Amino acid sequence: MHGFERIGIAEIAPGLWRSEHDARNDRPALGAVVGTERVLMVDSGASPRHALAFVEALRDASGRTPDLVALTHWHWDHSFGLSALGVPALAHRSTFDALARMRDWAWDDGSLAARVASGEEIEFCARMIGVEYGASRDIRLALPTFMVEERLELELGDRPVLLEWIPNDHSADGLVILDRAARTAFLGDILGPAYYEKPVAYRSGRFLALVERLLALPAETYVEGHDKPLSRSGLLRELAAHLAVARAVEDGERNRPTLARLAADADPEAEPAELHRIAAFFLSGAAT
Known about the structure:
The protein has helices at residues 48-62, 76-79, 93-102, 109-118, 123-133, 204-216, 232-238, 240-250, 256-266, 272-286, and strands at 9-13, 16-19, 31-34, 39-42, 68-70, 89-92, 146-148, 151-155, 160-165, 175-179, 184-188, 221-224, 230-231.
């Protein structure tokens, strides 16, 4: 079995906790919103060990443990720890459907390789599942308890939280969890492209609408699953190249070097290879 059992967490605002993401095994950042009556955990992690390590760290740091958990989407690194928590889980209905479909899957190397070959799984995810779980793959999926259709308001005790579904390319079930008191939104991976499509794609109109919805939230801090928290201005800087390409594609531009040049103008510090990749993703979305 692989390690990484102990994780560090930090209080990024009063009553709002976040763990670090870990690129070694693709563990995302997990979160917790601590109210006077209830604690909401954001995402259940990549495995029971990941989930329980976060719970232990939260207990040590705050004296509290989760009473509820909300899943931002179904992908393995955000949901496979749910079985260890033993608390009610909230998620979009499509999250429930995806996890229910996977409950009887086998997770040995051969089964993972077959799903990669069929396009049902991504090679990177299959590899990271091997890192997280080692050779023993006793993966038991739990299902969410309560379904969120469009939006849901929670009250944790002087701590209002909004769960809102926003259409995006990364995963059709994407929920954003907004801690209204801390003006902080947990995004999961909602800003990512559709990695499960071949070729990988962004749809320009959907991406622009997503960013507009995110900026309309009463948030000053945005927490992504696999990156550092960003201010509102930091988010716009991070997305500058994406937005430039998305707007150009929406206006009918289809020349990849032209799109890459527009992306470079918007983000001069970005690596050229990354800018070409962004252009390719939006062109793939335009072709479907």
